[in-house]
Design goal:
Blueprint lengths: L13 H4 L1 E8 L10 E9 L5 E9 L2 E11 L8 E8 L6 E12 L5 E5 L6 E5 L6 H13 L8 E2 L19 H7 L3
Antiparallel strand pairs: 1-2, 1-8, 1-9, 2-3, 3-4, 4-5, 5-6, 6-7, 7-8
Amino acid sequence: MAKKEMEVVKGLDLPRYMGRWYEIASFPSRFQPKNGVNTRATYRLNQDGTIHVLNETWSDGKRGYIEGTAYRADLESDEAKLKVKFYVPPFLPLIPVVGDYWVLYIDGDYQCALIGQPTRNYLWILCRQNHMDENTYNALVQRAADEGYDVSRLQRTTHTNPPPEGEEGPKDAKGIWWIKSMLGM
């Protein structure tokens, strides 16, 4: 049986979407360390209409990050179907990796969002705060299940209070987090 077409947000207000988002839960990814905490993404609109992406996580007390670019997959569509491109490895950017970033849901205040992609292999629950009330979380999990995601794979992201504000902590300048995550560590 074929999976149904996912519902994607239409008319996403990109300037309003910009800023910092905290990962509340996600499917495990080989691109993130298993012991990552305080995972977040910061988006900034570029003058050419693309989006600067900064993904950060702290692992073993060090800040790991990768920067990339997001852009509309179809300039003629008002659906929130974006492509995101990173170059890997981050310490020697040679290979472009492009993925889908579909906004499946965003609340009216642009405070929480559900992000997925067409294969349903990746899923993120994001929030402007580093915590989310259980009712909102459960509603987003149910929405993901309704879209055909195996929500049993969701893992909550650990956050400290207060969260790191800037680029606190020593940087993982050698990209060890990326190598460890590729090896499943």
